[in-house]
Amino acid sequence: MKHLRETIEDDFMARESRKIAVIGAGNVGATCAFVMAERKLGEIVLLDIYEGFAKGKALDMSQGGQVLNYDGKITGTSKYEDISGADVVVVTSGFPRQPGMSREDLIGKNAEIISQVGAGIRDYAPDSVVIMVTNPLDLMTYHMQKVTGFDPKKVIGQAGILDSARMTHFVAQAVGCSNEDVQAMVLGGHGDTMVPLPRYTTVGGIPITQLLKSDEIDAISKRTASGGGEIVKLLERGSAFYAPGSAAAIMAESVLNDRKRMLPCSTLLTGQYGLEDVYIGVPVLLGKDGVENIVELELEDDELNSLQSSANFYKSQLSDILGY
Fold first, then answer.
1. Strands (DSSP E) found in the chain
2. How far is Cα 180 from Cα 168, in angstroms, rounded to an integer?
3. Are the C-beta atoms of 320 and 288 separated by less than 8 Å?
4. What is the pLDDT of residues 84-133, one digit of tens each?
5. Crossing angle, helix 160-175 and helix 242-256, to 10 degrees?
6. Residue range 5-39, pLDDT digits in tens
7. Which of 56, 179, 246, 277 has the most CB atoms lying inside 10 A of its own CB?
C-alpha cells in the first residue's frame, strides 16, 4: 500500500497537471476562476480580448493565495494558444443583460462572439469539456457545439444549477431553514420559460408541498423564473455574477474530479422527454467525459407540457434567428 504522504503527493501532482481555461474575464468569469482557485482544481488560464484586464485579475487572485491558502498557477492572456491542453473550458464571453433586456435580446450580439470563441477552443483545446455560461444559454450552447463539432456530451450549459440554487434560497427563506437542507429542481430553458418542479423540491427530504401553501410555492416558482431579471433591475448596470460564476465552477469540479454529480444542466436531447435536437435543462450525471447519463424524471402531464413548450420555444429561435 502507498504511504499516506505519497498518496497526498500524487493527488497534488494530478491536480497541478490539470488545466482550466476561463474565456471572458468579466465578473462571471473572474468569480468562476476565483472559486476554482480556492477549490484547488488546477492551473487556471483567464482569457479576455483585453489582455491587461485578464492579467490584472489573474495577478490579483494570485496575490490572495497566501490569505486563502491556494497555490495554483493563475495567468491572464488574450491568446488562444495559451489555452492549449485545457481539460475544461468555461465560456462566459458575451454582452451582459441590461435593464429591460431579455436573454433572447442577446442572441444576435453573442452568437458572433461564440463563433469566434468556439473556433479558438476547437483549434487549441480540442479534447476539452466545454461549459457554457453565455446567454441566451441554451441557444449559445447549441451554437457552440455546432461551431466546435465536439461530441455533444462534452458541450454543456450551466442552467438548472443556477436556477435551482435560486429556488433553493427562496424556499429556505419561506420555510425558515438553512439553504443547505433544501434540494430544488428546475428544468427547461435558462430563461422565463424555465420549469420549477415543486414535487421534486425538498427540505430535509420532505417535499415542499407538505411544508408550504400552494400560493407560496407559486410565488417562489415565479420569482425563480425571473430571478436573473430581478438582479439586473436592482443592479441597474450589469447582471448577476456571484451565483452564476460559482455554479459554473461546481460543474468544472464535477468534471475534473470525476465526481459524477447529478446536476440539472443544459444538454442535447436525443428523444428524452419527447424532445430531440435541442439543448435544454434536465438532470444529468456529470463526470470526466462530460454528460455521462441523462436522467428522465417521471413528470406529470402539465410538467412535461411545460418542459416541451420551453424546449420548443428555443428550438423555434434556433431556426428563425440562428438558421439551424
1. 19-23, 43-47, 74-77, 88-91, 129-132, 155-157, 182-183, 186-187, 195-196, 202-203, 206-207, 261-270, 276-287, 290-294
2. 9
3. no
4. 999 999 999 998 766 676 656 778 889 999 999 999 999 999 999 999 99
5. 120
6. 554 455 555 556 899 999 999 999 999 999 999 99
7. 246
User: What's the rounded Cα separation, in Å, for the pair 140 and 118?
Assistant: 10
User: Dihedral through CA 187, CA 190, CA 195, CA 199, nearest 10?
Assistant: 50
Tell me if 311 sits within 8 A of 175, measured CB to CB: no
Kindly write down the DSSP assignment for every residue of 102-146, as one continuous string: -GGGGHHHHHHHHHHHHHHHHHH-TTPEEEE-PSSHHHHHHHHHH
- Give the torsion sign (CA, 197, 203, 204, 207): negative
Looking at the DSSP assignment, which residues form a beta bridge with residue 19? 43
DSSP 188: B
**Dihedral of alpha carbons 173, 197, 236, 238, sign:** positive
CA atoms of 310 and 281, how far apart (whole Å) = 10
Beta-carbon contacts of residue 312 (< 8 Å; ≥ 6 apart)? 278
Own/partner contacts of 230-233, CB < 8 Å, gap of 24 or more, are 232/97, 232/98, 232/99, 232/101, 233/99
Query: % helix / strand / coil in the chain, to the nearest 5?
Result: 50, 20, 30
- 314 neighbors 194 (Cβ within 8 angstroms): no
Q: What is the pLDDT of residue 3?
A: 56
Bond before 264 cis per omega within 30 degrees: no
Please say if 190 is a catalytic residue: yes
Grid cell of 111 as nine digits: 452568437
- 120 neighbors 50 (Cβ within 8 angstroms): no
Beta carbons within 8 Å of 107's beta carbon, 6+ residues apart: 136, 139, 317, 321, 322
Determine whether 319 is exposed, middle or buried from the number of CB atoms within 10 Å of its CB (0-12, 13-18, 19+): exposed
The amino acid at residue 256 is L
pTM more than 0.85 = yes
- C-alpha cell belonging to residue 162: 443556477
